[in-house]
Amino acid sequence: MDYNIFYQNLLLIPAMAFWVTVLIKGISVKLKTWKIDLAKAFGSGWMPSVHSSVIVSLTTAMALKHWINSDYFALAMAVTVIIIYDAINVRFEAGLHASAINQYLWEKKFKESLWHLPSEAFAWSMVGILIALALYYV
Hints:
By secondary structure, this protein is mostly helical. The chain is built from 6 helices and no strands.
């Protein structure tokens, strides 16, 4: 099969998902705060879930290019599960620790909002799928 530029270089797909999601995140931060805040646009926490979108776009691309019974897809799927689990659970706990440390220090020294709700990770995973599909048919 003759693939387009994105599927000849699979790294372009998560890169495109990253920039699209960061742009959407930057716009949503601007609408909420009326300020351009690049630290929040590129940082962890807030919505949308950039890492969910990025990793799911790569996993979807692997499924489209190599099919779901390939070792490439299996590896991508394992990494995807770990990253989304981390976004929902591990980083939630890290935020609780940051909150406790901030209370102990009586100042907000550590960022507390590091995590996403399962629905947020799921929604932005769907965006990753859509980006991978759109670039497949370019």
